[in-house]
């Protein structure tokens, strides 16, 4: 008998492309991962340095100040009034996404299936695999939007949860949130909505699933993208009172605690919208600039409905060939779409997170 066999980590597959770029240009400009490069606001750095919260254990559910700040942000930005008791802190979002199926399986042991978008962040499926659950992709339409009406009733009966990600990674699609919430309530399936790109919604205002009500839904948010705080690992979940309470309690027992200085930084970040507006302008400008570069290569990069990724169709559907072409011709590292599911294998993703000067360097290599 053998144990669980870990698949290769997807981004390790880009090592040859990085070597190719370095050989040609001396170094690579990496836009394969959506890691922020811009500085967080000074008010956040000041809060980290002066929190005086380093000595004691931080509360797993989040400090009162943190949960109050998250509730105030949801109300101020999206007109959603939620009790801070229905909010819990996370150590970034990846640990929450990857751990959720395990916790839900303990809550509902007769179910074993995680539903997630067929083109999406790989941790939704990996979280199911790590929990010994079934990971079942839900089809997306030609605008990369989740099609809940395509879910097999047999899978719905076994579902622990349905994941949304809107605006979506990698394709920038905007899901029908109302339809997803209604589907979940009709089938008794909790719907978790990953909204970490919500403030980078380009087609209309950003929307949270909490605007449909709290019953049966949980919104998941991160400060990594909006405030350039990926290194601090801070996020939160909010929604259905019973679901949130279960997650708060099981995470207490598991020892998940967001560090005190990180929570203080999050309070400052959530209270300042100016830096987010400035970051929105940067990302929109970079999306336009990088789309022009791609266009000058004879390719087409549609502008996304949200997020800061370009989702570029590969000629002849060969994403790896296009990945290597970007490395060889521009010294640019991008991600082949298969990282985000087989249904994305004919595209590449470009994360426009690098400074403007790097985009101009790429342009100069054309």
Protein model, in words:
With 366 residues, this protein is of the alpha/beta class. It has helices at 15-25, 42-50, 64-78, 94-107, 123-130, 153-158, 177-187, 223-226, 241-254, 260-270, 274-296, 319-330, 356-364, and strands at residues 29-30, 87-90, 113-117, 134-138, 159-165, 191-194, 217-222, 235-239, 309-313, 332-333, 335-336, 347-351. It has two domains: 10-39 and 274-364, Aspartate Aminotransferase, domain 1 (Alpha-Beta Complex), CATH 3.90.1150.10; 42-270, Type I PLP-dependent aspartate aminotransferase-like (Major domain) (Aspartate Aminotransferase, domain 2). It has 13 helices and twelve strands. A seven-stranded mixed beta sheet has the order 2-8-7-6-5-3-4, sandwiched between helices. Helix 2 packs antiparallel against helix 10 (260-270) and helix 3 packs parallel to helix 10. The protein is globular. It starts with 14 loop residues before the first helix and ends with a helix. 51% of the residues are buried.
